[in-house]
Amino acid sequence: MWDQSKFLEPICYPMTELETVQILHSAWATLFNNEPSINSMAVLFAQWCLEVGIGAKYAKCYNFGNIKSSPNDGLYWTNFRCNEIISGKEIWFNPPEDACKFRAFKTANDGAVNYLKFLSGRKSYANAWSQVIAGNPSEYSHQLKLNYYYSASEILYTNGVVSLFNRFISKYSNTTSWQTPITAHDTPIDFTPEEIAQIQGQLGLSLDSQIQEYFASSRIDQENDHLAEDEASAFVPLELPKSLWGSIKNIFK
Length: 253
Prior knowledge:
Shape: globular
Helix content: 40-55%
Structural class: alpha+beta
Radius of gyration: 17 Å
Number of strands: 6
Strand order of the largest sheet: 3-2-6-5
Number of helices: 9
Number of domains: 1
């Protein structure tokens, strides 16, 4: 049974892009005691954008990877309505069902550290994590797919990770802002029509295509490895933008 004293209300705490990058950087330094390369940080940030859905705006209780809770993990937890794609079928669950229980954190840094631990410390994700270290977004996406991290199309998912990886490198390669202490505000970036068309082409989607399969996928705790064998993956319902452009633009605000 879940410890009721560790329950947190499922509240979203929005953060800007730059705040998120700085928190991920700080969590990496805390956990590994070394400096991540900009390519490694770009891989993590790009994949996180797709998974959580326009950043921490939709990450309830600072759960960076929407990782499932288990009753004996000793962590705080929350619950909210979600669905899972099991053997190709969409199944909805409502609280207080166990499938609706997710890890929860009181601070963004705690959530980010747990997210990195989850990716780096699981045997099933060892090959994927090696690609984070190498800074290879396409092979990282491939390794995640091989180990059932996501159920979306591998081609589209990989295109999304690579596109956001390249955008991150373009924005941050000539600055150290992503390594500095967390600031209160971020400067949004705007895309030109040409850049919009390029992103659409990279993702293989039209302007009004829905991309819910990219966002807010909940990770099954790999302590329950039998769930991964069924390619079980949960999705949090979001009020998604109606266009790919709107989604990508909002990621960088």
